[in-house]
């Protein structure tokens, strides 16, 4: 009888212990409030872009420096800053009096040489006839051999003088061409169609071109049609920029003057020469952009977004779903070990990378071992359940889901609503 009573007592004790543990675990898994209210956007299909951001400045496609080959005082300047000029248009006039005198001097020298040539030709004709008569007289023994040699020498001397005079004429003609060219250089003209960016001279100023040609004007061709953006890109991103150029990916940018306007261009060149900025290696990337409205002016600061890759119609979730780290009491018991592991990894990991770059697991509270493998938290019965996912490309706000049990329309937690129990 005692054994029966003892058995009943033991059974009652185990039942009570089981009921108590059930109540304990239910209390542990159930929030103190009736239902915690999470911010839960849904998985949806959409378009996502991987971008690299950079800054740069607007520059003319070409800047032509117009200089002066000759020296002299500037008599007049016919254009001003921002003027639109055409090829061959007169920009400034240098005093031409010295160069007019040089042309006149060379013309006189040329006339003198030609007159000298005429005189020598007359003498040569006379000497040639004298030589012919000498040959006739010598055949009849009327003159001596010595006299005949003198006639021949006189004609040959005049032959040489003819050659010297003809060479002098060629030299004088070349000098005259130089003098005329210098005279033309006193009229400074635009070599291209464009806009005057700089005017470095004023009337009365003296141009001195003794050692080098001074730049008097800077003209930008086609500034109202297209411009270049000179962007500085870090070496970490330059390979992806090169791949984007090969695929013809677009580049969007804004300027401070028009913060609400988004401009678009294309990568035209990646320059090989690097630059060091605070020990960071950067490369200059040239982006060509149309400028029909003439809004983009040289020197404007630009904020560029290079599209590296674009995918449409793919499952995406907010980036905040990867950054959300719940408290242990908000997570189902079976997933708390996952939360503890992720928290421990996050404590010892380096700072997370820039959101515009490829994702890495370092520093991400939702990361799991393996490239681009993450965890997100899905509401289930008032608590959160961990769901592993594999992500693809992403931007500052959204991330592509490559592989997961999540389906479009399913909710994921990104935080707690204001006023909810934390």
Secondary-structure topology with pairs:
Blueprint: H1 2-29, E1 38-39, E2 44-60, E3 64-67, E4 72-77, E5 84-85, E6 90-94, H2 97-139, H3 145-185, E7 187-189, E8 194-199, E9 206-207, E10 215-220, E11 226-234, H4 235-247, E12 250-255, E13 258-277, E14 280-290, E15 301-318, H5 320-323, H6 336-348, E16 373-380, E17 383-394, E18 398-404, E19 415-416
Antiparallel strand pairs: 1-19, 2-11, 2-15, 3-10, 4-6, 4-9, 5-8, 6-7, 8-10, 11-14, 12-13, 12-15, 13-14, 15-18, 16-17, 17-18
Helix pairs in contact: 2-3
Summarize the structure.
This protein has helices at 2-29, 97-139, 145-185, 235-247, 320-323, 336-348, and strands at 38-39, 44-60, 64-67, 72-77, 84-85, 90-94, 187-189, 194-199, 206-207, 215-220, 226-234, 250-255, 258-277, 280-290, 301-318, 373-380, 383-394, 398-404, 415-416. It has 422 residues and is of the alpha+beta class.
Helical proportion? 25-40%
Strand content: 25-35%
Spatial extent as radius of gyration? 45 Å
Global structural class: alpha+beta
Straight-line distance between termini: 55 Å
- Largest sheet, spatial ordering of strands: 2-11-14-13-12-15
Query: Based on DSSP secondary structure assignment, what is the total number of beta strands?
Result: 19
Average pLDDT over all residues: 84
Report the sheet with the most strands, covering strand number, pairing sense and barrel closure: 6 strands, antiparallel, barrel
What sort of overall outline do the alpha carbons produce when their principal axes are compared? rod-shaped
Count of discrete domains: 4
Uncertain runs: 13-35, 351-365
Compute the number of helices: 6
Which sequence of SSEs, written as H and E, runs from N to C?
HEEEEEEHHEEEEEHEEEEHHEEEE
